[in-house]
Specification:
GO terms for molecular function: 4 iron, 4 sulfur cluster binding; metal ion binding; tRNA (N(6)-L-threonylcarbamoyladenosine(37)-C(2))-methylthiotransferase activity. Its cofactor is [4Fe-4S] cluster. It is an enzyme of class 2 (transferase). Keywords: 4Fe-4S, Iron, Iron-sulfur, Metal-binding, S-adenosyl-L-methionine, Transferase, tRNA processing. Catalyzes the methylthiolation of N6-threonylcarbamoyladenosine (t(6)A), leading to the formation of 2-methylthio-N6-threonylcarbamoyladenosine (ms(2)t(6)A) at position 37 in tRNAs that read codons beginning with adenine. It is a single chain. The protein contains 14 helices and 18 strands. The two termini are about 15 Å apart. The chain folds into three domains: about 100 residues, 3-Layer(aba) Sandwich (Rossmann fold), CATH 3.40.50.12160; about 240 residues, Alpha-Beta Horseshoe (pyruvate-formate lyase- activating enzyme), CATH 3.80.30.20; about 60 residues, Beta Barrel (OB fold (Dihydrolipoamide Acetyltransferase, E2P)). With about 450 residues, the chain is an alpha/beta fold. Strands 1, 2, 3, 4, 5 and 18 form a six-stranded mixed beta sheet that branches. The protein has a five-stranded mixed barrel with strand order 13-14-15-17-16. It is about 35% helix and about 20% strand.
């Protein structure tokens, strides 16, 4: 489990991106530090609006590099002038904002603390159903913190879910290191039963299943897809991180699946559900990955075309077996990551473009930047509704929207009952000199 410190400079768009980064890190079990000196990683979300701002960003990066164990720089200056940091001798990872969570998580399982309890964040209820996992991945450090899977009973988790709904939760996020192995410690595969019973709770809400490794989900995938098909409360969304398209690399990673098992899970959901969202992860540049292995990963991504993809450049974690392997050069990892990220944007952009002109029922999950709100359709695809106040749209509402446009990784939509107001446009930014520090 890593601790993090985030500093954000610039417009409301940057602040929204930092919120997304932090939410993903928290969902992954990582926790904020008291300050950069106590953090495993510091994240600097930069602005580059004027030359003075650029000098301030560079100076702050230099300060953070001295104060923290690892520095990640993202935001406008990182993307437009990333070489400036290198030229100044700043040792930092320069990333697009949506690459930051996967880089920090490093392909590892999310970490649930021993005393983890349900949390209500706005209308989103976080429900940890178990702690630990059944895997022993060679690159993962969180196994040292979590141990083997420990699953509370179905009844206990259902009661926690019911309490969240009664407290106002409209979306329940079922989380764990590996939700697919829930119940394995008792010799029983209980995830389908648990999801079925949560969906049977009285109330209007949605349920999102958290990460389930292909090796754990494969043995129950046929039973599980029936639960999805029978319950409209369940988002038709599965996060199954494949990590590589090469069986040889998967073996070196000590993953509990091979590519064919992953394909079988995908094909089963394709056959049974009209539309669903596949989310998956790839680790690029694992020490034993050859160019041919990388091409197999690229081919698999192009073949299954997930709607959500996390691409992580391999980085060594102290104490793991993979840390002892002779690594690939940074240039190789960077080039492979760039190639896969470009393919990712093509695949994801294609998925969201296909939604334009269609109408979907959505749940308004949270506020966005400016006067916008973030919504999720039945397959957990993100749709942004702008000018929410004048349209009378509030967090927690269920409504029909027509998708009017997209911005590669999300769509824009207009409420159907107001007749549509044309394609949504990005919200103008606020004062770029404003900064927000999030470390607690």
């Amino acid at each position: 489990m890593a601790t993090y410190h985030i500093e954000t400079y610039g417009c409301s768009s940057n602040r929204g991106e930092s919120r997304e980064i932090e939410r993903a890190l928290r969902d992954g079990g990582h926790r904020p530090a008291d300050g950069p000196e106590d953090a495993d990683v510091a994240i600097l979300n930069t602005c580059t609006v004027v030359e003075k701002t650029e000098r301030n960003m560079l100076r702050r990066a230099e300060e953070l590099e001295d104060e923290t164990a690892e520095l990640v720089v993202t935001g406008c200056m990182a993307l437009a002038q990333g070489e400036t940091f290198e030229e100044a001798g700043v040792d930092a990872e320069i990333l697009h904002w949506d690459e930051v969570p996967s880089y920090v998580l490093n392909g590892e399982c999310p970490t649930v603390t021993p005393d983890a309890e349900p949390v209500l964040d706005g209308v989103v209820g976080i429900l940890p159903i178990a702690r630990g996992c059944m895997s022993n991945c060679s690159y993962c450090i969180t196994k040292f913190a979590t141990g083997r899977v420990d699953s509370p009973s179905v009844e206990e988790n259902v009661e926690k879910a019911r309490a969240l709904v009664h407290a106002g939760a409209k979306e329940i996020r079922v989380t764990g290191q590996d939700t697919g192995v829930y119940g394995w410690d008792d010799g029983d595969r209980k995830l389908p039963e648990l999801l079925d019973r949560i969906c049977d709770i009285d109330g209007e809400f949605r349920v999102r299943l958290g990460m389930a490794n292909p090796g754990g989900i494969h043995g129950i995938h046929e039973e599980l897809v029936e639960v999805f098909a029978d319950n409209e409360e369940l988002y038709d969304f599965v996060h199954a991180p494949v990590q590589s398209g090469s069986d040889e690399v998967l073996e070196e990673m000590r993953r509990q699946h091979r590519v064919e098992k992953f394909r079988e899970v995908v094909e089963t959901f394709d056959d049974r559900l009209d539309h669903w969202t596949l989310s998956t992860d790839f680790i690029v540049g694992f020490p034993t990955e050859t160019e041919a292995d990388h091409e197999r990963s690229m081919d698999l991504l192009a073949e299954v075309r997930p709607e959500k993809i996390n691409v992580t450049r391999f980085s060594k974690r102290p104490g793991t077996d993979a840390a002892e392997m002779k690594g690939l050069g940074g240039t190789v990892k960077k080039e492979r990551s760039k190639a896969m990220s470009e393919l990712k944007m093509e695949v994801v952009g294609e998925a969201y473009e296909s939604m334009v002109g269609e109408t979907f029922e959505v749940l308004v999950v949270e506020e966005g930047t400016g006067d916008s709100v973030k919504c999720r359709d039945g397959a957990y695809r993100q749709i942004i509704v702008q000018n929410a106040t004048e349209r009378g749209v509030d967090v927690g509402d269920f409504l029909e929207v027509e998708v009017t446009g997209h911005n590669t990784v999300y769509a824009f939509g207009d409420p159907v009952d107001e007749g549509g107001a044309g394609e949504g446009e990005p919200v103008e930014g606020d004062d770029p000199s404003e900064s927000v520090t999030s470390s607690a």
